[in-house]
């Protein structure tokens, strides 16, 4: 395998953890990158910046610096973006098919512990891990979530296959 550097999409910054999460859409047309200041920047398949929006805390009274984005995942059709946060919530944003469309929260999944990772498989619910050891599934149609597996260990990562 030969890897070739094509382009730098975000300039280097001083300090650690400037990028907290990133994900490609299934059709490889959209790249979402979340920075440490909790802003999601959207790029096209050529690495050109197309859009950006700020994420929100579970409750505005806690302020913008009360959480960290721990995971991003596109819906199978690329029109929604799930954002898992350390303030015990997953927001699903409707981002639309075209660049520049208004970003609207269409689902909220409040949890008992911090979200640590998440995936959105081609079929089925959003699957996510929590700091308390639960692996849960979130159904965007019913707006409900359920526990799929439970352990005593922090959930570090998930893989769709």
UniProtKB/TrEMBL annotation:
The keyword Repeat applies. GO terms for biological process: intraciliary transport. GO terms for cellular component: axoneme; ciliary basal body; intraciliary transport particle B. SUPFAM superfamilies: WD40 repeat-like. Keywords: Cell projection, Cilium, Developmental protein, Flagellum, Repeat, TPR repeat, WD repeat. Belongs to the IFT172 family. This is Intraflagellar transport protein 172. It comes from Amphibalanus amphitrite (Striped barnacle). The gene is IFT172_1.
């Amino acid at each position: 395998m030969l890897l070739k550097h094509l382009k730098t999409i975000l300039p280097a910054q001083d300090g650690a953890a400037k990028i907290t999460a990133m994900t490609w859409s299934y059709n490889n047309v959209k790249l979402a990158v979340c920075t440490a200041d909790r802003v999601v920047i959207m790029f096209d398949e050529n690495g050109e910046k197309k859009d950006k929006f700020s994420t929100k805390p579970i409750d505005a009274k806690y302020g913008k610096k009360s959480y960290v984005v721990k995971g991003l995942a596109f819906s199978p059709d690329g029109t929604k973006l799930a954002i898992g946060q350390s303030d015990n919530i997953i927001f699903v944003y409707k981002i639309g098919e075209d660049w520049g469309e208004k970003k609207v929260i269409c689902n909220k999944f409040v949890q008992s512990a911090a979200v640590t990772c998440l995936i959105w498989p081609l079929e089925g619910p959003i699957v996510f891990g929590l700091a308390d050891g639960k692996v849960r599934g979130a159904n965007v149609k019913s707006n409900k979530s359920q526990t799929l597996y439970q352990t005593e260990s922090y959930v570090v990562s998930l893989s769709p296959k």
